[in-house]
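Supplementary Note 2. Why include the ligand at all?

Several targets in our set were suspected to adopt different conformations when bound, so apo predictions alone were not considered sufficient. For every target with a known small-molecule partner we therefore ran a joint prediction. The input for NDP is given below.
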Amino acid sequence: MSRSVLVTGGNRGIGRAIAEAFKAAGDQVAITYRSGEPPEGFLAVQCDVTDAAAVDAAFAEIEEKQGPVEVLVANAGITKDTLVLRMSDDEWSSVIDTNLTGSFRVAKRAAKGMLRLRRGRIVFISSVVGMLGSAGQVNYAASKSGLVGMARSLARELGSRSITANVVAPGFVETEMTEVLPEEKKAEYKAQIPLGRYATSDEVASTVVWLASDGAAYVTGAVIPVDGGLGMGH
Ligand code: NDP
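The joint prediction is reproduced in token form.
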């Protein structure tokens, strides 16, 4: 059955791969983008997740054009890395506002429709860094581990209505976000990954699609690592 899916930040990177994977599975897929030309083949809605009114308007448009969101993937995220003593309040709060509060805004809005439908799947894209910590990323790591507490609370609040909430925690994935890392840093990270390589966006996407599938109906409040073994034990 074709479902109404929304992937925030589905215009590029991991989000784009997730959107393509749902589309390939036969779902109707909406994506958010902020500027530029969104990819074709999706219901593209302009939306900045830091803006609650824009989130509400995006959902209203999706509900009208493809029905209430049954599968939400909160993927939009940013980094603003620097060492703690140099980190400004703005670098802290903009990362929290986008990655954590932005995910809250879309999950809250999606829950409204899912409660009415009495079914739904919410998947948050976190990071291995949320569990392991990362020097230079106190803002990002805090935002990503915050998603775990949020997902688990939603799992408890919404479970009786057959709504699941889970977290996918990728390790390093080849996208524009990691492209900017210096080569020696990349080699250093790779040396710590048991599988010895970065993930592809498709490898993250297949896990997200599985969490939204019938086969994962009894999985909720889980943190699923897709990190080549980097975070084992967390
Ligand atoms: P990219 O930088 O390639 O893409 C980020 C996406 O988020 C873009 O679609 C961007 O939209 C969107 N976005 C950013 N800020 C906002 C906002 N305020 N409102 C709406 N959309 C926004 O990143 P990745 O694809 O690599 O990352 C996707 C997710 O995966 C993020 O949450 C990231 O933290 C997480 N992740 C990534 C890893 C990696 O190694 N790459 C590892 C672990 C987790 P726009 O095009 O408009 O800027």
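The pocket of NDP is lined by residues 8-9, 11-15, 32-35, 48-50, 75-78, 98, 102, 125, 127, 170, 172-173, 175-178 (CB under 6 Å). The first helix runs from residue 13 to 24. Comparable summaries for the other entries are listed in the accompanying table.
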